Structure formats: structure tokens, C-alpha cells
């Protein structure tokens, strides 16, 4: 169990410190970090999962991202749709620009919700 926690902690640290392979991911990380001051921020590029879709033929916005963010700021917006609107508002430029993000999957939690999730996973 300790090893699993250490791995999760190291992934979190790495996800906030290591430059990504794409400028889009770096811009997302900077905006989300500045505005939400997250305790957890994980951004995963899922573009390869969408590139073969017929709807993506000829589309220049090729990046798909999965984001997990834990922040005290989400206590203000209790419902998931409100939290997601907060994130969409922060990333509106990246979503709108040519060659930007075409898909964004979000998991938004408060620190307490994250702790409950960890406890649930440990019990399983």
C-alpha cells in the first residue's frame, strides 16, 4: 500500500514539474495551476484515441486531453457541471484556437472527495 501511495505521489509531482511534449499541455497546466491552485493536477494526452475517427478527417484541432484536478476552489461549485464550466472558461482559448483541443475529459474533485476516493480504493 505504501508503494502505491509513493507511486501516486511521484506521478502527481512529475505531472506538475516536467514539461510536456506539447505546448498545449504546458499552457493548460499553467492556466489551471494559476487559477485553481490544485493539490492534484494530471493531464494526459489522449489524441491517439481519437485520430482515427471519421469525424476527425480534415480537422486541425487534433488534441484530446484527460484532466484530473483536485482543488479547494471546487468547494464553491458543488455540482460537476459548474466545476466543468470553470475549467472550460479557463481553457476557452485552447478549445477555440486552430490546432487546439477538440476533446476534453474532466475529473474534478475537492480534497475531501479525493480522500474519500482513496479510502474507497484502499478498501477494494
UniProtKB/TrEMBL annotation:
Region Disordered: start-end pairs: 48-67, 101-124
Comp. bias intervals (Basic and acidic residues): 109-124
Pfam families: BolA
InterPro entries hit by this protein: BolA (IPR002634), BolA-like_sf (IPR036065)
GO cellular component, one term: mitochondrial matrix
BP GO terms, sorted: [4Fe-4S] cluster assembly
Family: Belongs to the BolA/IbaG family.
Protein name per the record: BolA domain-containing protein
Biological source species: Paraphaeosphaeria minitans
Amino acid at each position: 500500500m505504501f508503494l502505491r501511495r509513493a507511486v501516486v505521489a511521484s506521478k502527481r509531482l512529475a505531472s506538475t514539474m516536467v514539461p510536456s511534449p506539447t505546448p498545449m499541455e504546458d499552457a493548460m497546466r499553467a492556466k489551471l495551476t494559476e487559477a485553481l491552485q490544485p493539490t492534484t493536477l494530471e493531464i494526459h494526452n489522449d489524441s491517439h484515441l481519437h485520430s482515427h475517427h471519421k469525424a476527425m478527417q480534415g480537422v486541425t484541432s487534433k488534441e484530446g486531453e484527460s484532466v484530473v484536478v483536485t482543488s479547494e476552489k471546487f468547494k464553491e461549485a458543488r455540482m460537476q457541471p459548474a466545476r466543468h464550466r470553470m475549467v472550460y472558461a479557463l481553457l476557452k482559448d485552447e478549445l477555440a484556437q486552430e490546432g487546439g483541443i477538440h476533446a476534453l475529459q474532466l475529473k474534478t474533485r475537492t480534497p475531501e472527495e479525493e480522500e474519500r476516493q482513496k479510502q474507497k480504493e484502499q478498501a477494494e
